[in-house]
Each structure stands twice: as C-alpha cells, then as structure tokens.
Amino acid sequence: MKTEALLYNGLTTCEGCAMEIVARTMMKVFGPRSIVLTPPSCSAILTGYGRETGWKVPSFQSNLENVAAYMSGMRAGLEILGKEDIHIVGLAGDGGTVDIGLQALSGAIERGHRFIYICYDNEAYMNTGIQRSGSTPRGSWTTTTPGGKKEERKDIVGMLLAQGIPYIATASTGYVDDLASKLEKAKNVDGPSYIHVSAPCSTGWRFPAADTVTVSRLAVNSGLWPLFEATDGIIHVTRKVVNLNPLEEFVKAQGRFANMSAEDVAKWQDEVTDKYNRLLAKEGQRWN
Ligand SMILES: Cc1ncc(C[n+]2csc(CCOP(=O)(O)OP(=O)(O)O)c2C)c(N)n1
Ligand code: SF4
Ligand SMILES: [Mg+2]
After folding, report:
1. pLDDT average, residue stretch 124-145
2. CB distance 22 to ligand 2 below 6 Å
3. Class of the CATH domain delimited by 18-280
4. Least C-beta-crowded within 10 Å: which of 32, 67, 81, 228?
5. Does residue 1 surpass a pLDDT of 60?
6. Residue 8 has pLDDT above 90, yes or no
7. Stated pTM of the model
8. Distance, CA 120 to ligand 1 centroid (Å)?
9. Is the pLDDT of residue 149 over 60?
10. Which residues pair with 121 in a beta bridge?
11. For the chain, what are the domain ranges?
12. Ligand 2 and 126: CB distance under 6 A
C-alpha cells in the first residue's frame, strides 16, 4: 500500500467514524492518480463545502441519486482525453446506493464503465438524522422506526450479482487488510467493480466511539456480515468463521436493538446461521 495520506487530518466526522476508516484505506490503495466522487452523505463531509476539501486528490460531489452516472460520464470524458491511468472512485452511503442511487448504479454497471464504487453501509440515512434506509436491518431503531424497523433489509450484493458484474465484494472496517486486498483487486478490473463495506456508526447505532472495530468484528464473526468476493460471478469466502459467535453479542453491543425480544434475536440467529451456511456451500461456484 502507498503510505502517503491522501486525506487531511482534523476532519469533522464523528469520533470513531468507520466511514473515515474506509476513506483512508481506499486512498492508500488507489494513490494520487484518483478522482473521488461522493453524493450527499457523511462522506460529503470529506469532500467539503465551498473552497475547502479534505481530499488531496480531485473530488466532486454529485446529487444523491446519481453518483454512478457522474462516475460513468467522467470515465467517458477521460477516455476522450486519452487519460487511462486514473482511478474513478465513488464513496457512497447505503441510502445513496440501495435506495436513491440504485437506478444510476445499475445503469452504469450495465454500460460496463470502468470505476470502483464503494458503499460504506452504516445502515441508515445518518447525515440527515438517522432515518431508516433500505439497508437498515429488521428490528433496528431509527428516528423513523422508533419501535424497530419491521421490514427486511435489501440484499444489494445479491441484486448486483444477479445483474452480472465483473468484481464484487463485501468487506468490513473490522478487517482492514481484507478490505485493502479487495480494493487492490477492484483497482485492476477492466470494468465496473463494487465493494459493500460494513461501517458501524457509533452515533446512529448507539455504541461508544472506541468500540467501532469491536462492533465491526462482532458482525463478521457472528456470520451476519460474511466476507466474500465474486470474480465473474464465482464466489470465494475470504474469511471462513468456523464457530460463529452468538449474534446476541453483536445485538447487545449497541443501543439500536434495545426493543428486540430474546425470541426476536433467536429467530434472527437461525436466519443468519442458515444464510451463512448456504454461502459457504457456494464456495467456488456461480452465484446464480
Ligand atoms: C434526492 C435527495 N433526497 C434527500 C436528500 C437529503 N439527504 C442528504 S444526505 C442524506 C442521507 C444519505 O444517507 P446515506 O446515503 O445512507 O449516507 P450517510 O448519511 O448515512 O452517510 C439525505 C437523505 C438529498 N440530498 N437528495
Ligand atoms: S454520523 Fe456516523 S457515519 Fe456519519 S460521520 Fe458520524 S460516525 Fe461517521
Ligand atoms: Mg447511511
């Protein structure tokens, strides 16, 4: 990894922000020949306001619904200019990806443009006050689901795998080396690539800021957030957890699941274990 920090210090994200870990890791992998795009979201804090920016590379803020369309347009422009060696990187939240920006993302992938789209998933619309998104898990408190969300979250990775994408991976801020190696692979793909990163948010999930990495790891090691990748649709699980941690440890580490009963958690545990085992059985096989 290149060691030069391509993000300034002293940014105004919350203490312990996992999104900032993603941003710093991705810049170490991609280096100075990069253009970063962010939609309105907490990542837009890094892109900044007016004449100030946190990035040491060119950056651009799109609308919430169209960061992938901007990325594909920028790639087309660079091709006309004959500039082949520049990485186009999008850093978008879950709301801007699985809900509002989904059409632009799907279209850009279908057109086959070369870019790296990174969704840091903090599982709600955090920047505007912790509203539920399509990625908020069932049972979670948000300001718009005060009694706990009733609906299941969207499986965006499954959706994009079904569409067909040259490279896609899940990752976590609990395992930064795994994240970095997936960013490295994504960097070298001749087409679109997508990485979906679990990025716990102490502000919205209600846990102490010092616990970000611990909470990230609890999600992975309970089987709730499996770490895997798919190259041309072939599944490879990058971290195989032999004895899954009880999901209850992840649930209890944060305040947003305070309304869940023991039965709710037990049911969720069964679903997570079943889904995890079905994923392990897909190792080396096509997703669909
Ligand atoms: C079309 C549109 N709707 C709503 C907004 C207001 N808005 C700005 S940031 C944001 C939250 C985005 O949530 P997410 O993508 O999950 O990123 P996070 O804030 O969690 O980092 C919203 C709703 C907007 N800018 N554009
Ligand atoms: S609200 Fe969450 S995602 Fe946004 S800056 Fe704070 S910790 Fe990071
Ligand atoms: Mg979000």
Report:
1. 98
2. no
3. alpha beta
4. 81
5. no
6. yes
7. 0.98
8. 13
9. yes
10. 198
11. 18-280
12. yes
